[in-house]
Write a structure and sequence with these properties.
Blueprint (H helix, E strand, L loop, with lengths): L15 H13 L3 E3 L4 E3 L10 H22 L2 E3 L5 E3 L22 H9 L6 H5 L2 E4 L4 E4 L20 H5 L10 H30 L1
Antiparallel strand pairs: 1-2, 3-4, 5-6
Length: about 210
């Protein structure tokens, strides 16, 4: 975003004495720009032990050149709220990452076993679109999720009692929600197994 009015950035008040020397240096060593990253590259030789005044003067001159290049090169347009906006070109200089690259994810016990045995990963969703044929209705239904095949029988108004549990004298819970409880318990077992695999993988890497 820029202001509606801009001063003469190439020769601001108080810098007239140094403008001749700066122009001479520009002619001998013209700077290059990466406007997308708001960068200026000045090949002008710099003293090996510059003073604070020289550093300040050089930074000021570079900032003036960069702003002048932006104002004369980049398109300026007005936003709906009457604010002047400037469109920058794509960046040309690759910048380093702010954070290190993420570490590769440790393989689970099953993944290491499958790799050792040469078992390929099969994506059943690509073959059947994540659906399975329901013989009772004669239609293709979802395997998981809303009205999924894995929830079959959970909404039945009558459920058969498990004779094995009854014969052992086990306390029977409400059988109407037995299917849902078993499905939830299976999910919890899978999560516990996944956490155990992660712990084993961490111990393996720390031990090596």
């Amino acid at each position: 975003m820029i202001e509606d009015t801009a001063a003469d950035v190439t020769n601001p008040k108080g810098c007239a004495g140094s403008s001749t020397a700066a122009n001479a240096a520009d002619n001998a060593h013209p700077p290059s720009f990466d406007l997308g990253n708001l960068l200026i590259f000045s090949p002008t030789p710099f003293p090996s032990s510059p003073t604070a005044e020289q550093i300040h003067q050089n930074a000021q001159q570079c900032a003036q050149k960069l702003i002048a290049e932006l104002l004369t090169t980049c398109p300026i347009h007005s936003s709906p709220d009457k604010t002047l906006m400037m469109t920058l070109p794509p960046p040309a200089t690759p910048l380093p990452r702010e954070k290190p690259l993420p570490k590769p994810k440790e393989k689970t016990k099953w993944e290491r076993f499958a790799e050792k045995k040469g078992i390929g990963k099969k994506d059943s969703r690509k073959e059947t679109g994540g659906k399975v044929f329901d013989e009772a209705t004669g239609e293709w239904v979802n395997k998981w999720g809303y009205k999924g095949k894995n929830k079959e029988g959970e909404g039945d108004w009558i459920v058969e009692v498990d004779e094995r549990k009854e014969s052992k004298g086990e306390e029977l819970k409400s059988v109407s929600g037995e299917g849902r409880r078993e499905r939830k318990e299976k999910v919890r077992r899978n999560e516990r197994s996944a956490r155990a695999n992660e712990r084993r993988a961490r111990k393996g890497t720390s031990g090596s």
